[in-house]
Amino acid sequence: MTDTSSRKSMGYYLRTHMREYGMVIALIAILAFFQVMTDGVMLKPVNLTNLFLQNSYIIIMAVGMLLVIVGGHIDLSVGSVVGFIGALAAVMIVHWDLPTIIVIPACLIVGAIIGAAQGYWVAYWRIPSFIVTLAGMLVFKGLTLALLGGASVGPFPDSFQAMSSGFLPDFFAGLIEGRFNIFSMVLGVAIAVILPVLGLRARAKQAKFAEVEEPIAFFAAKHAIAGIAILYVTYLLSTYRGLPNVLIVMALLIAIFTFITNSTTLGRRIYALGGNEKAAKLSGINTKRLTFLTFANMGMLAALAGLVFAARLNTATPKAGLAFELDVIAAVFIGGASMSGGVGKVIGAVVGALIMGVMNNGMSIIGVGIDWQQVIKGLVLLAAVIFDVYNKNKA
User: Fold this and answer.
1) Quick one: which of 296, 286, 179, 314 has its CA closest to 237?
2) How far is Cα 83 from Cα 119, in angstroms, rounded to an integer?
3) Cβ atoms < 10 Å from Cβ of 10
């Protein structure tokens, strides 16, 4: 076998991309394990819907945290920002009687300002992000308590709750008997068809400039498995109430940030920043502005997560967002991001968040106590970091 054909073999490709696909294999294995252990409860439509709703805010923040970590920094304040934004929304809606259409964009802007303020100190004053965001975590915990006066505030109107508890309407309702959301299923089929088409376009574009590293057989197998998974999950959700609104929001965010990181100059510069900041600066990249933008983006996504979490609880509480930053950071590292920056993918962060969510959900169903849940999640995070260091040393 020639060197070229060896490089095109699926085995070689998998070995050299184990960081990227290892966690996907782990997610499938964990899902299968809990599906057996829970006697089929794990993949029941109701539980699957709850799984997405319960982990939506973690996935939303994991997308933003990935960019921060890839850029060589970290944000410990996201959990406190979630609680503060939820409290701010509650005060604006319940106490000030403002409409949802004003509250949501206003809270997103406040979140972006919070992230920008922290990013300013990190980017332009060179204060370590760990210190800046640790201070932010304490500040916004205190402001949340002050804003709520130590008590919960709620409930929210239906228009606000729809962000987290609403579902896509079925525009084809009545065409078939029974409780089946046809529009959600059609949307799932469309996504399953569009993804490989976009993949082929990207592959053809890459082939114009260099040899495509990914074997065509692997490309076909990957998209076939992803398409089957999308169709199966969509079918299950369609038999219940259809696709949740928050799932559509997550899908759009994943698509947007995957495009930014994979196909734009901005995305390539963020990876360059985390890989070697001095080299990036010497090549003409405005590293300070880039760092500033990643933190502003993280603040906005933390605000969105805060709105979704408050809408799900239907109330704002002083303890909202407690320890969320740990779950978000763990999800990004489990998903394949490197502690030293410069490495990681959006899909990996999402997979990491889903692994954490499936483990939480599965262990709760089979009756594992919260104490042992924490132990197991900690060991999984440690294993993911050890795997990252092992791969790096091996390379």
Assistant:
1) 179
2) 20
3) 12
With b for 16 or more beta-carbon neighbours within 10 A and e for fewer, the 214-246 pattern comes to ebeebbeebbeebbeebbebbebbbbbbbbbbb
The answer, yes or no, to whether residue 326 has pLDDT greater than 80, is yes
344: exposed, middle or buried (Cβ count in 10 Å: 0-12, 13-18, 19+):
buried
Lowest mean pLDDT among 9-13, 163-167, 228-232: 9-13
Q: Partners of 244 in the beta sheet? A: 167
Q: Which residue has the tokens 């965001």?
A: 133
- The model's pTM: 0.92
From first CA to last CA, the distance across the chain in angstroms is 23
Distance (Å, whole) CA 242 – CA 322: 30
Which residues lie across from 167 on neighbouring strands? 244
What are the tokens at 97?
């009687």
Round to whole Å and give the CA distance between 200 and 227: 14
Nearest Cα to 55, choosing from 299, 362, 314, 333? 362
